[in-house]
Known about the structure:
This protein is α/β, with parallel strands linked by helices.
Amino acid sequence: TIGDYDPCWLRYERIEDEALAEQYRKWCGNLTVLGSSPILESARDELTAGISSLLGVAPALSRDLRDFPSLVLTASAEGRGWVDRRVWEGLDEEGYLLKTVERGGDAFLLLLGKTDRGALYGAFHLLRLMQTRRPLHSLEIVENPGNRLRMINHWDNLDGSVERGYAGKSLFFRKGRIVRRLDRIRDYARLLASAGINAISINNVNVGPDECRLITGSLLPDVARLADVFRAYGIRMFLSVNFASPMWIGGLSTADPLDPEVRRWWRERAEEIYRHIPDFGGFVVKADSEHQPGPLTYNRDHAEGANMLAEALRPHGGLVVWRCFVYNFQDWRDRSTDRARAAYDHFKPLDGRFVDNVVLQVKNGPMDFQVREPVSPLFGAMERTNQMLELQITQEYTGQQKDLCFLVPQWKEVLDFDTHAAGKGSTVKAIVGGKVFPCRHSGMAGVSNVGDDRNWTGHTLAQANLYGFGRLAWNPDLSAEEIAEEWVRLTFGHDSRVVETLRDMLLESWRVYELYTAPLGVGWMVKPGHHYGPDVDGYEYSYWGTYHYADHRGIGVDRTMKTGTGFTGQYFSPNRERFESLETCPDELLLFFHHVPYTHRLKSGETVIQHIYNTHFEGVERVEDFIRRWTRLKGKIDAERYEHVLSKLREQLENAREWRDVINAYFFRKSGIPDEKGRKIY
Ligand code: GCU
């Protein structure tokens, strides 16, 4: 542990293979840093600490090439001179080159960033190569990030609580103030930067009266202290703001975005923020959503609201990240309204109206981070608007860091989904990577799963979700397998039994979670409020718009154009036809798009009801199997983490059994159809 907490994937355990360590020492025994800046110093410190720990000796530092360099860290013009012009020009602002070079009889390893931020990412890459025991000779690695914005959204409140947090209290806030000690925040910045993150919003999108003060003189000096820590690791600070702040803290009688006083108020706020934080990233805004105020109150639309804030930030280079999680509460009796339609219906008509320092942040699915949802049809539907993807790293609906659920495979499906917005190949990753439509700002945001628990994430294996989010935001083409194995090696070492077992458990875990929870894409069925554990009708007669419509004959939501809510019509062809038709709709999304009888046959050959029974029995068996596989690792993993994970898996088993029995009993009672295999249903 670093201090009192887990170093996660930055453990840098001593390399035992002496031959390999010797090879690494050859390339990293000396470290020459050309240039200086706070970020370059971070890169140097990371290399020094990492190399010392991995190789058992600190690299000899120099600022001069005459000292026979082995590793040269730079983002300077001098470094540029050693590489082909084409290579240099091919580097984006945060890109880097790692290259072994022979020069005048000397061999050295060049770590060249396009900027000092690129150099920092290159430093972490080099360390990762050693942590994963890769050879260093004849390296030629050129990397550019796949997304410009690679952001973490915290849902932390000033009192120290964390909305949907399952890992203790906030790292940033305690009792209405910002924490005094920053050493853990610095380690957090290191973790994030090492995974490729370059932006962070520190407070909840639900912004209360206390949090409004974050953009005032009373708290800005403290926010600036946090920003300093993150800046040294290339991470820009954002704040979530309340749209009604001019009324709550400004003493104005309105928050109307077209009111000149309101506009002036926000301009002055921006000026003060930038006096404290010159490179402030901007605002994250949840407006007209779940009781948060917004422009609609004043008969203004989302574009008018967002553009007003953007205008205040523009002179300083700030961004407005405007969230599209907007829907109306509804009457459960009303079958024509469909929450899934809402984001598209609200925002699509506004395409082209947002100024270019606004970026719309769209949740991956049309509902709300369920274990299985189709991709939001808004991706690619607004070709004249900046868009970014929002994922939920915190496991609100996917086991709350009690159950193992590695989300990278889910995110990969989202990123690889072909929207067909501009023909074949218009994948979500290409859209948010800015490769389909020209857009100034785009990328990925993930809702943090971190708190002040010793292991940061409640469940130690949930660290893999934070790591995986960062790695995917940097390179969405990485496979889930690569990320899982890399994380396991960095975090648990290289014993082949450990690597294989843990990698496979991670990769299977999302599917396993899906098996024992809500079936076939229907979602929800969770306990209202906290959202852990089963309650099939918990939201069925509520105003949240999250229904399954199960009766004695069948289940599912008819979202077709022909007989349902018409949601399928929001997709581009051929997705629209694929989801519309019962024949082509994928099994795993069947109940999201269609209402079918329990006797409907899936492509797998099973009936819906038998599928429900089978998957729920299987889900529990698979968790039992996780426990068996984990216990075989005893002695190969330190006792603390071994016991911790074991106790989490046992908790998960209880949860899975509860889900199995509630779901199976519910549908047996509704349908009257027994399990073909005669298993125990209560
Ligand atoms: C979910 C979550 C809320 C959160 C909201 C949001 O609905 O349950 O706690 O505020 O998403 O994303 O704004």
